[in-house]
Amino acid sequence: MSALRAWYAKSHRPQLSLGTSLLSKSNFRLASTLPPRSTQFTKPTIDHVNHLRSILSSPASLLTTLDGSSTSGELDAFNSDWMGKYHGSSPLVLKPRSTSEVSEIMRYCNSRNLALVPQGGNTGLVGGSNPVYDEVILSLSNLNSVRSFDKVSGILVADAGVVLESADNYLAERGFIFPLDLGAKGSCQIGGNVAANAGGLRLLRYGSLRGSVLGLEVVLPDGTIWNGLSKLRKDNTGLDLKQLFIGSEGTLGIITAISILCPRRPLATNVAVFSLPSYEAVQAVYAEARSRLGEILSAFEFFDSGSYGFVKQHQAHNGGSKKVFETEGEFYCLIETGGSNAEHDEGKMTALLEHLMGNEMVLDGVLAQDETQIKELWSLREGITESIGKLGKVYKYDLSVPVEKMYGLVEIMRERLRERGLYKEDGSGIVIGVIGYGHMGDGNLHLNVVSKEWSDDVQQAIEPYVYELVAENSGSISAEHGLGIMKAPYISYSKSTESVEMMKRIKQMFDPKGLLNPYKYIV
Amino acid sequence: MSALRAWYAKSHRPQLSLGTSLLSKSNFRLASTLPPRSTQFTKPTIDHVNHLRSILSSPASLLTTLDGSSTSGELDAFNSDWMGKYHGSSPLVLKPRSTSEVSEIMRYCNSRNLALVPQGGNTGLVGGSNPVYDEVILSLSNLNSVRSFDKVSGILVADAGVVLESADNYLAERGFIFPLDLGAKGSCQIGGNVAANAGGLRLLRYGSLRGSVLGLEVVLPDGTIWNGLSKLRKDNTGLDLKQLFIGSEGTLGIITAISILCPRRPLATNVAVFSLPSYEAVQAVYAEARSRLGEILSAFEFFDSGSYGFVKQHQAHNGGSKKVFETEGEFYCLIETGGSNAEHDEGKMTALLEHLMGNEMVLDGVLAQDETQIKELWSLREGITESIGKLGKVYKYDLSVPVEKMYGLVEIMRERLRERGLYKEDGSGIVIGVIGYGHMGDGNLHLNVVSKEWSDDVQQAIEPYVYELVAENSGSISAEHGLGIMKAPYISYSKSTESVEMMKRIKQMFDPKGLLNPYKYIV
């Protein structure tokens, strides 16, 4: 079981093993769209280092290659993202130990026109948290204390650098749960989560961070400490300024602490998986599950037969796959409940299952009987990413579209690749699968094109067509990963000119010199 | 039962019967803090009327006294708030029938420097939705259609002028619930609710509108229609601009439509009331209820013995009160559940009751057996406002403070009034009660000082001391009612100079001429 859990955690990072050919392609495209280094920014020098060292209470809080005290190798982990896809060349990393140190750093950098990139756990997928050129890296890792927790209200106040898993463990000991969960939970930091407005696995149940986060402490580009660290669930005195910083990806200010409302931890978990004849059937089951499971529904994931086929193929390759369904289908869904009473929750889940089977809304269904089976059933959904990564090169798109239109995008893309002779059902084309899976409840589709090899023909058949499709369906080209440097050039596919203009004006208002996390987000 | 329900609806508006002495006092104080009419704004003329009439598709969409086609009496309901506390003197009301009409109105008013106040159901409590002087009134009442509802995702898209109760009824027929409920639901409009970021009775369960609202359509002060009417639950492509308009009280733009995520409607409701020995016991029971009822807890209200005493006194006056508790206490709490399975929910509620009684966490408890009893128990909490209104003159404060400090404010205020000889337990002072009740789960305290008559001594003993107390406890002087014109001068008790300065800069960015809902909010 612990091996399964460890594999599960790793399965969120399979891109690491996808080889360098995708990465170099991405870099190639990026190079052509990357803005040049701004001449407005000062290059960090030894004089800056000396002054910044005087600000910091600990000598260990500064790493630099400028005076030879650190090697560039020691700065690599800060300069590159964890996928090894994006690389900066900063000579200077600062790891302040207090909000006031962050403030003094910001004030100084602002006065010297030193550009700066804030960095949490550096687990992002869009190159948002590492430098592009020589921006000073400001790591929040040393701001890592829980400041307070109130077990009556469930309100946690904690430094930005607290690791998500640590926060969740802290809460678990007290019977509470952090309203966000991610594959990267062991490394990502809660301040970075808020700065990125991370979505994750608990959104269906606990909603977005915009509803959970009660307050923020933010250091503004000029060094001002903005104390918006409210512990109030209700406060209607003026604009809710913290919302500007949530999801701003570190471009408006540095989040140094958060206040967040945490729910009670569920005491019981149930998982069932169903096979279904059509996407319409998935939608009908989703509606039924929402109705019958109501308040205990905690996840509703779907995947298509193509996805399941790859999982079975991968399992077979690894020594055999268990037969799960008597009758397989075109689609599958996984339903999870989390509630406060095991008997009640099982009753609801069993009743749902009987209703779905009795009314022939599903082809077959399996209800997990214990923790091991829960993990086995989850592995059917969570195993997709690893399976396709092992069996081919994967063009991955993380899209948000209205639920009813979600799978249509997969079908359109499959047909397009078929028409171009790239995809053939018998496996003789370069593309061996065009599959879809994702978070049904959130309208979050993972469209994946599995190819025998990296190919310009395939890529050009997909992009920018996939973004156009998303735009036509009023969707989002980034459901939960943000813009960073990867998607910054493509924001117009999801946002109007008026919206982008408003965003630019707000950026200009907060950061007139544009020093904070430059070249990214809204450019 | 229907009589009870009607009374319940009325009980949210008891201030109407509080007499004119409070109102004239408020006006008196307001007069001294009210900014003068801005000379930057053009006075509406018959030429403006003629042009605006040409914009509107229906002659009935324009009411004006300028050409004698309407009397000032016909404009009274638009010029005054429903409490009769705030009065403007606009000669012109516009009731556009489409977003494009709103846009043309805004463009024209902007070009002519005509100030303008947006008005929904005009049910606010802070004078935010009626004119102060001669601002043009833009009523959203004729924008009242549901645009779409998706029963898979639960996403409702509707015009701003849809009445909250109509929206909820529409959803109820489809098995869904609007994630907001208010006493004023029969009149207030969903656009106004979002503009005010209304809190209400369902916040504990469904969270704030900031998490539920998915998108907005807004007409900006220059007439631009900003289409932010997303139906996406997840979208991380840039700043979440809609958050600026939520709670901006119509000062940044006119909300013309909303997109909102609606949960499934609970199928079962249970209500219990407990008597308790102390506020600490209330907090302990709240923690226990959160733990044991978890996902089905839909309300946790508390009130003190003073509140309950007034309710009993009022009931006795009206022909006898039922004995509810064998053992009364210093405090009471009402717990409501809403879930998808009646049997399960009753089981949880009964188990909680047995645990609380068995462990002597409460003095006594009553579980409603049917719908009539549910309403009777709710009337103990909901009857407070009417009871004290009948038995004295009430100084009312709607405050938000951390839950653990909530009741301390009542005790401090009671002691202060006792020290000044204004409050005496034996009823011989001018103040006959200093009581507290409210939404425990939201940290929302209703502090009420019940006086035999209106008195400068009493008012001066309370204000601005009560705001200072709130400020010392990092609270909010307006938990859910907003600022409007009533609390605009007091924002500094809840927000820092830096915050107010940021808000002013954002207002300047969106509305450089300051034409939209002037004299209010952030002044």
Automatic annotation (TrEMBL), chains A, B:
SUPFAM superfamilies: FAD-binding/transporter-associated domain-like, FAD-linked oxidases, C-terminal domain. It comes from the Eukaryota. Residues 86-265 form the FAD-binding PCMH-type domain. One of its GO terms (cellular component) is mitochondrion. Pfam families: FAD-oxidase_C, FAD_binding_4. GO terms for molecular function: D-lactate dehydrogenase (cytochrome) activity; FAD binding. Its cofactor is FAD. Keywords: FAD, Flavoprotein, Oxidoreductase. Belongs to the FAD-binding oxidoreductase/transferase type 4 family. This is D-lactate dehydrogenase. It comes from Tremella mesenterica. The lineage of its organism: Eukaryota, Fungi, Dikarya, Basidiomycota, Agaricomycotina.
